[in-house]
Amino acid sequence: MKIGLEIHCQLTSLKTKLFCGCSSDYRGKTPNTFVCPVCLGLPGSLPVLNEKAVELAVMVALALNCEVAPQTFFVRKNYFYPDMPKNFQISQYDVGGSIAIASGGWVGFLVGKTRKTVRLRRIHLEEDPGKLFYHGTIDTSPYTLVDYNRAGIALLEIVTEPELEAPAEARAFLQKLRSILEHLGVSDGGLEGAMRCDANISIEGGGRVEVKNISSFKDVERALTFEIVRQRDLLKKGVKIQTETRHWDDVRRTTLSLRVKEEEQDYRYFLEPDLTPVRISQEMVELLRSRMPELPDARKERFLKAYGLPEYDAEVLTSDRAMADFFEECAKLYDKPKAVANWLMGDVLQCLHSLEVDIDQAKLAPQYLAEMLKLMDRGDISIKIAKKVLWEVMKHGKSPSTVVREKDWWRITDLQTLEGYIAQVFKEYPKAVEDALVDEKTIHYLIGKTMEATGGKADPELTNALIRKKLSQMKKGS
Amino acid sequence: MEPYKLGAWEISQKIRNRELTARECIVSFLSRIDSLEPKVKAYVSVLREAVLKKAEKIDKKVKRGERVGMLAGVAVAVKDNICTKGVKTTCASKILENFVPPYDATVVERIEAEDGIVIGKTNMDEFAMGSSTETSYFGPTRNPWDLSRVPGGSSGGSAAAVSAQEAPLALGSDTGGSIRCPASFCGVVGLKPTYGLVSRYGLIAYANSLEQIGPLARGTYDCALLLSVIGGYDERDSTSVNRAPRDYTRSLGKDLRGLKVGVLRELIGLGTDEAVVKAVLECASKLEEMGALCQEISLPVLSYALPAYYLIAMSEASSNLARYDGVRYGYRTEVDLDWNQVFSKSRREGFGAEVKRRIILGTYALSAGYYDRFFLKSLKVATLIKRSFEKAFQQVDVLLAPTMPLLPFRLGEKIDNPLALYMCDVDTVPVNLAGLPAVSFPCGFHQGLPIGAQVIAPPFREDLALQVSFAYEQAAAFKGRTPTL
Fold it and tell me: Which of A231, A254, A288 is at the close of a domain?
């Protein structure tokens, strides 16, 4: 199985669009209000390149180990589609003397515990089209609405070689890529539609299928998995997989055929006559290289040295910029970094998944996690309670000590109180008490029941001691 | 004298000196327009109310003793493919019949900044595709020298308006000769600037890599004046060249002694009307009398210019005109269909035959498998032509050639034979492929019809071309001749 990806990533750190001065802060705005003659492609308007976009693209190219072109050109990609104001997209492509801004390059990442490298084919700059809105889904909608606020937003297309071999690999690669882009500060993957993806997939004995319209990285794995199942089913039935383009329907989570090979478009690329070649001098490249922030791989190395983390932990944490930032904040406040890493990669990640939020949008602040760990260290709460506290913090955004106080989850260390609970348990489970009197090993049942009765608040060691004491008294008494 | 008979410079001088008011001038042009338009049909729209208000504003400025611009009170006719804020800009096409741009082209802003007044929008071949102004959706413009003949094109309305004294100045656009051709046919001066000298921002594109906006006037001085106003760097056009602004009227009046003029052999060769050849050669002799040194220059590669030009222009056009789909502005078919059908039907109904022909041919030339054979090869031809001009300019200062290989033809005479019409551009297109400046000026008359010659200069040497045109004009026997209407 071969999977190749085309990632479209908005350069969200730019204030303006790629070829005009319109604000790029279009999200949530009234449709068709963040537009001007240029991004609307009005007759007579002309594009002017946003030079900052070129700088950001070069930085991405350097971060992805690409070769930066000394001179780059823009081309027109011609096709009719209502989301494109000019019915052509200003893009880059290796045609007619045009060279994309960067070529080659590679990204290393971890799939589970296996290291994998994927080579990149090219990186290029292009303008984002507008956005189409359907009533319901694409094939049943009686009309299509267009919002051009997004039209002209600077987009970086990153094309991989078809070297990925499983949907999970695709997701792991995208996660790493996103982390690199976020460390560079060029693109905020958390913004809706800021990172989108087209996937090419071919399985043994089948044609190449391109799946378009995958608007989140999570959906990449879903769409690819769906396609593999669909294609394998067809092959089993003896149906040939034809080369085609399909549309990912994220509502119904299926793919629909858009067009087969015979209908493939001829984009009639040619040099954009309204723009001049862009020279990228070696001095500019070196200047940008010197300004590069710390990237995930370097950060991982630092995590190994500075925090003594195992390689796996360091890799996982730095695969997500926000996670790595969270870790470092927390490690400043709490001096056992391995414990922080364990909690982040375990319970915190689980909570994030079930709440469907990213760590930087979660209600858990680094100081809260640190505070919780300290409560545990001081013996104020047990690990069991700590897990419950974490949930409460992440749901309601209250500090751990507030949660513990409000819920009265302090560890029970008061002898009288504990003895009361134990007496109650002994009364409820006379058979277990009898067993324990005969076989000491069964005492754990009684401990467990006591813990249960206290909602996990009982100090386990104290409980153990008190139960033993009570049992031995009973033996003596009998 | 009626103000409409005056040139642009005279008008602005008289207004500045309070010999005339801007209002008087504008009224004079408006009444001239009223009386001649039924015959000439140079304009697509005339801005009657707006121009009076602007004129009054300028008069107030003069009265208060404030500084007024170089074009104070001068009416300028603007080709209808140049955007004017709030004023319909149609490209003489049904598809843009009601298009009102929300912005002004840079050249319009510059004219207004110098207190010039856009008096109306002029007729043209649809999307500037033609050499006769007959492909206009609004019907053809007539040649003021003979109303049964075409004014040339595609800036036929602009040239006719200036020729008929319906405006002292006009703007045209020249993709493959669209300023020089009508200037020649209408007996006026028209300049195609060096590629990158004048901002294209606001010019509705036909073939971006070839075209420039340029001035038309009855005399070289006014032409130079308008060029000085519209020329110069514009950050909104990436292909505009960053050079210091220039006053092109300054070099006028310099004599021609020692100036080396090359007469382009290929362009006075086979297929050129004898009367045209005779007039251009006489012009060369006249220049020699004035001290210029004429020699013949041969550039054989020019024979490939016409097909290369049409392939590049049509290819770019096929892409430029894709945006007219009825979704955002312009003509949209009445029927409620899916978007592909709306696109196709709107375009089928909105574009004229010549535009469709060029879109289809251009689409073909860019298609996979044909790109190298047609488009890329044409670009190579353009490079060769550019180089051969560079070589020529090592020998001579300027080149002289006929603007058009023939005299103004009759309406309807060629419209059904596109190839014959394309052939008319044979002398003008090399200049566009090479990005050079060229001025077309009247160099004689034959049976009452004007003949134009063009002076081609090295890049950014508009001053040289204008110098030759001005010197010749001062000495010409027909100086000051105007059509009888």
Answer: A288
> Which residues 6+ apart lie within 8 Å of A129 measured at CB?
A81, A83, A84, A89, A150, A151
pLDDT at A185: 94
Give me the mean pLDDT over the B51-79 stretch: 97
pLDDT digits (tens, 9 = 90+) for A331-383: 999 999 999 999 999 999 999 989 888 888 889 999 999 999 999 998 888 88
For residue B309, the distance in angstroms to the closest alpha carbon of chain A comes to 15
Q: Which listed residue (B14, B54, B79, B286) is catalytic?
A: B79
Q: Which residue in the list B132, B163, B173, B178 is annotated as catalytic?
A: B178
Chain segment A109-163, per-residue pLDDT in tens: 999 889 999 999 999 999 999 999 988 777 778 888 999 999 999 999 999 999 9
Contacts of A42 in chain B (CB under 8 A): 101-103, 328-329
Does residue A478 carry a pLDDT above 70?
no
pLDDT digits (tens, 9 = 90+) for A4-16: 999 999 999 999 9
Q: Which of A44, A49, A274 sits opposite B105 (nearest CB)?
A: A44
DSSP classification of residue B87: B
Chain A partners within 8 Å of B91 (Cβ): 43
Give the containing element (helix H, strand E) for A287. helix A282-290
The per-residue pLDDT of chain B, averaged, comes to 96
CA distance B335 to chain A (A): 14
Closest CA to A324 of A334, A335, A313, A333: A313
What's the confidence (pLDDT) of residue A96? 64
Do B239 and A42 count as a contact with CB atoms less than 8 A apart? no
Residue in B408, B400, B470, B355 with CA at minimum distance from that of residue B182:
B408
Interface of A with B (CB under 8 A): 37, 40-49, 76, 78, 80, 82, 85-88, 95-96, 144, 146, 266, 268, 270, 273-276
B374 is written with which tokens? 């047609």
Fold of B3-256+438-475: Amidase signature (AS) enzymes (3.90.1300)
CATH number assigned to the domain comprising residue A450: 1.10.10.410
State how many domains chain A has: 3
C-beta of residue B205 within 8 angstroms of C-beta of residue A37: no
Q: Which residue, of A235, A266, A288, is where some domain finishes?
A: A288
Print the domain residue range for A364: 294-407
